[in-house]
């Protein structure tokens, strides 16, 4: 008779395989949705795929409770089941993701309490080093100047709709290749080749071919964004070949890709060769595997912490009314804890705040909202916390923390990429940086709005500046769908008493928004306001917001380009 622990291990593995098969099927539809320009279906598929892990987790947890006759609640059984699961997945091509699924079931059963390596796969698998196999790439030895290589690359996309003008696009690509790539290659002494991943990366309204040019010791990454013209044909929109530009395509502020990858670790390994500065967990996230990315982040954070002596401190910037935020000076991430009591005038519930963060995870972030990871019962070394921070924690979040020996456990915490708060960035920036970042700030608000997101609280402190100079929104407690808002003009006062009133003398409903009041977001920084007004004063007009709402109601879905306008071949297409 099969033991309880063996049945437990087998049921979890069967659940994982079922999850991954359905995950793959949703992903496989990405190309058909792109070719049909069915953007609402693409957005729905993205949300459905994100929900899949939790759905399967609940189903499997319920199943193993029955299969083990309740033995699932005995931690001793999990210790044996972990060993047996390791044996079952020894030759599984996606063993590392299967381990994360095992962990997820364990955490679901025990409500994230006492997660130890004894019972779950907490530490990284020994010797785990994913390698990108040759079976996932197309390799094209250079002949001539590379024109034929580019033609082969485009042909191998195997679209079921035609190219708008393939020869024209090849010409645009070769202009960039001759100007920016060929001069960097030592073609006299080495044979060059192009390598591209066989599967395209689909997101929003675009498909991306990802690859590199290799010549001797030189490796130059590139990305070809491909667009659907809406009339049943495709075209190449740009050629990105700078490391920073490619990094932005895979940014933490972007939504996840859909990529037909039977073995995600192989794709992650290839991407890591192109972007060695990105961590493994970031690439799993970008590939649409955020749950396994969470496992990889945890291991990364533990390793970073063990190799640091820096204390945890309150994060720089104006303290939030809803969140307590802390970090380390040598760590690129911040930890955010929901306060027990919000600073007035904030009046929403903690459940509302969690719902806003959940919405961000499921929305198309368009490069303007930071991705987050959510943890329960996350343990830290209490000795690493400054006394100032401990005093703040005990004052603001006493119900969220507990101590056990040297362990300080947070019952619930979000982890987010560290950025320079926009209000702090403005204090030290020069005029050129000011113009750029104010344009970015206005563009961020407009792009969020076009994606049916209203930030709510648009104070400068709620936006961050990335190392690439992009402005990203990261404070979500007042976020809501744009269509839920009622944009109004400020009523004209009818008498002196109304004109002098310090409070609204007119009725204001919760959904009412007065864009004319947005000027108050710049209180104390007239230098920034002056620049912003020149670029984005239309944001003060209720008509701007109402017009955008009407477009969204009529099915408008914005184009979200993760690269600069000047990099597009668009102008050349229009003039040809």
Summarize the structure.
The protein has helices spanning 4-28, 30-35, 39-67, 75-88, 95-109, 147-155, 166-181, 243-249, 264-274, 280-286, 290-306, 350-362, 387-396, 422-428, 431-450, 496-500, 526-536, 542-553, 570-575, and strands spanning 137-141, 192-197, 201-203, 206-215, 218-228, 234-236, 258-259, 312-314, 323-328, 333-338, 372-381, 401-404, 407-417, 420-421, 453-454, 463-465, 471-473, 480-481, 486-487, 512-513. It has 576 residues and is α+β, with helices and mostly antiparallel strands.
From the N-terminal CA to the C-terminal CA, the straight-line distance is 74 Å
Radius of gyration: 26 Å
Approximately how much helix is present in the residues?
40-55%
Count of DSSP strands: 20
What is the topological layout?
Elements: H1 4-28, H2 30-35, H3 39-67, H4 75-88, H5 95-109, E1 137-141, H6 147-155, H7 166-181, E2 192-197, E3 201-203, E4 206-215, E5 218-228, E6 234-236, H8 243-249, E7 258-259, H9 264-274, H10 280-286, H11 290-306, E8 312-314, E9 323-328, E10 333-338, H12 350-362, E11 372-381, H13 387-396, E12 401-404, E13 407-417, E14 420-421, H14 422-428, H15 431-450, E15 453-454, E16 463-465, E17 471-473, E18 480-481, E19 486-487, H16 496-500, E20 512-513, H17 526-536, H18 542-553, H19 570-575
Parallel strand pairs: 19-20
Antiparallel strand pairs: 1-2, 2-4, 3-4, 3-7, 4-5, 5-6, 8-9, 9-10, 10-13, 11-13, 12-13, 14-16, 15-18, 16-17
């Amino acid at each position: 008779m099969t033991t309880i622990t063996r049945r437990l291990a087998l049921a979890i593995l069967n659940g994982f395989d079922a999850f991954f098969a359905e995950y793959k099927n949703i992903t496989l539809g990405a190309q058909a949705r792109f070719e049909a320009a069915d953007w609402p279906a693409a957005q729905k598929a993205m949300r459905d795929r994100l929900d899949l892990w939790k759905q399967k987790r609940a189903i499997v947890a319920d199943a193993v409770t029955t299969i083990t006759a309740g033995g699932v609640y005995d931690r001793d059984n999990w210790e044996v089941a972990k060993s047996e699961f390791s044996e079952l997945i020894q030759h599984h091509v996606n063993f590392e993701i299967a381990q994360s699924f095992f962990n997820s079931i364990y955490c679901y059963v025990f409500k994230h309490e006492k997660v130890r390596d004894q019972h779950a796969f907490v530490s990284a698998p020994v010797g785990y080093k994913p390698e990108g196999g040759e079976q996932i790439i197309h390799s094209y030895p250079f002949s001539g100047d590379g024109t034929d290589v580019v033609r082969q690359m485009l042909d191998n996309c195997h679209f079921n709709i035609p190219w708008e003008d393939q020869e024209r696009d090849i010409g645009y690509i070769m202009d960039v290749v001759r100007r920016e790539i060929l001069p960097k290659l030592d073609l006299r002494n080495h044979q060059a080749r192009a390598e591209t991943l066989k599967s395209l990366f689909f997101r929003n309204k675009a498909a991306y071919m990802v690859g590199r040019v290799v010549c001797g010791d030189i490796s130059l990454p590139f990305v070809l964004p491909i667009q659907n013209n809406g009339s049943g044909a495709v075209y190449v929109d740009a050629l990105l070949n700078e490391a920073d530009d490619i990094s932005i395509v895979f940014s933490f502020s972007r939504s996840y890709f859909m990529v037909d990858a039977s073995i995600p670790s192989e794709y992650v390994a290839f991407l890591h060769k192109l972007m060695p500065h990105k961590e493994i967990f970031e690439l799993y996230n970008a590939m649409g595997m955020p749950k396994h990315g969470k496992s990889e982040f945890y291991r990364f954070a533990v390793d970073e912490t063990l190799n640091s002596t820096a204390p945890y401190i309150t994060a720089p910037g104006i303290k939030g009314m809803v969140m307590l935020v802390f970090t380390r000076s040598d760590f690129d991430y911040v930890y955010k804890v929901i306060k027990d009591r919000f600073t007035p005038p904030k009046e929403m519930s903690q459940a509302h705040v969690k719902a806003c963060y959940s919405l961000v995870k499921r929305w198309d972030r368009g490069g303007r909202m930071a991705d987050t990871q959510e943890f329960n019962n996350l343990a830290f070394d209490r000795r690493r916390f400054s006394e100032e921070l401990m005093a703040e924690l005990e004052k603001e979040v006493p119900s969220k923390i507990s101590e056990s020996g040297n362990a300080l456990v947070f019952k619930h915490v979000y982890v987010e990429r560290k950025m320079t708060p926009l209000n702090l960035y403005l204090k030290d920036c020069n005029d050129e940086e000011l113009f750029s970042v104010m344009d970015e700030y206005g563009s961020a608000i407009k792009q969020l709005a076009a994606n049916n997101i209203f930030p709510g609280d648009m104070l400068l402190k709620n936006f961050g500046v990335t190392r690439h100079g992009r402005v990203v929104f990261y404070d979500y407690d007042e976020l809501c769908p744009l269509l839920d808002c009622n944009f109004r003009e400020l009523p004209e006062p009818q008498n002196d008493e109304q004109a002098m009133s310090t409070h609204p003398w007119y009725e204001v409903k919760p959904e009412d928004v007065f864009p004319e009041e947005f000027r108050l977001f710049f209180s104390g920084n007239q230098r920034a306001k002056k620049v912003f007004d020149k670029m984005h004063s239309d944001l003060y007009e209720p008509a701007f917001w109402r017009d955008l709402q009407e477009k969204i109601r009529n099915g408008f879905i914005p184009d979200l380009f993760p690269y600069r306008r000047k990099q597009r071949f668009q102008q050349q297409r229009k003039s040809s």
